[in-house]
Specification:
With 176 residues, the chain is α+β, with helices and mostly antiparallel strands. It contains 3 helices and 13 strands, in the order αββββββαββββαβββ.
């Protein structure tokens, strides 16, 4: 009986001993004080890219907290919110040249996202309507790193021209 119990314990403990436990995932942490996003793979405690960001203005702050994210939208279309519409903005079709830049990772409520399209002169400043923006080249570098870490699934092309990829690994954005 003792041998059977030991075998059962070993059977259940083996995945933990060889690293087969649950994947702790990817963390994309945005530091409000430094205006920097740091990517981390929590599975092996490795650090990924650190990229400068633009954050929300005092009137429209980027939400703080930890948010699960489900996917990436490449060549995102853009529909202006009430503030942008009031300033005369109009809908922009799927493009890498729109206000969202090359891609976006939605998080939080009310259409907030981490996205490209940032004017390099604005990096490190609180001037957005709540989104975290970065330069397109930096966002593409982050997406390459996520692919290398096995975090992104295959692209699904939509009739709108957008392309969507789901996260295959648990991924969170933390804004602190």
């Amino acid at each position: 009986m003792r041998t059977v119990n030991q075998s059962i314990v070993l059977l259940f403990a083996l995945p933990l001993l060889v690293g087969g436990g649950p994947d702790p995932g990817i963390l994309l942490e945005i530091d409000r004080a430094s205006f920097v996003l740091t990517a981390r793979d929590l599975r092996d405690a490795s650090e990924g890219p650190q990229i400068p960001v633009v954050l929300g203005s005092p009137a429209h702050p980027t939400p703080s907290g930890t948010f699960s994210v489900t996917g990436v939208v490449d060549r995102p279309e853009w529909a202006p919110g009430p503030n942008a519409r009031a300033a005369g903005a109009h809908r922009v079709a799927s493009s890498i040249h729109g206000p969202m830049g090359v891609a976006k990772i939605p998080f939080g409520r009310r259409g907030v996202a981490l996205h490209g399209g940032a004017d390099p002169r604005l990096l490190g400043k609180p001037v957005s309507l709540g989104c975290a923006r970065t330069a397109d080249a930096d966002l593409l570098g982050l997406l390459d790193w996520l692919e290398d870490r096995g975090a992104l699934g295959p692209s699904r092309h939509l009739a709108s021209g957008e392309s969507r990829r789901s996260f295959r690994r648990p991924t969170r954005i933390r804004v602190r």
